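Example 5.3 — Nitrogen regulatory protein P-II
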Amino acid sequence: MKLITAIIQPHALQAVTDSLREYGVSGLTITEVAGYGRQGGHTEVYRGAEYTIDTIPKIKVEVLAENADESAIIDLVLAASRSGRIGDGKIWTTDVGTVVRVRTGERNADAV
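Solution (predicted structure tokens):
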């Protein structure tokens, strides 16, 4: 099992979720997050005062998937979220040892 995590721009969320749903992903987790990468923060002026915003709002999408689906899901998220500009985000995977569905007690592939 793999946990596929993607940090994407908020405007790309609908395209990513539509692509994953069309592929057959049955569940995902979406979290509003903030951070920075190479683009760093930026400065803004509000009522004449300049201030620095150190973090940029992003969306974290997490999908639990079979090992065989890892590459396809990464490619779908990449295609749906890439604009070609700095700050598009990151995608990474993590090995998952055990998955348990709380309601039924099913484990691993049966729990997904």
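Remark. Strands lie at 2-8, 29-35, 42-46, 49-53, 56-65, 89-95.
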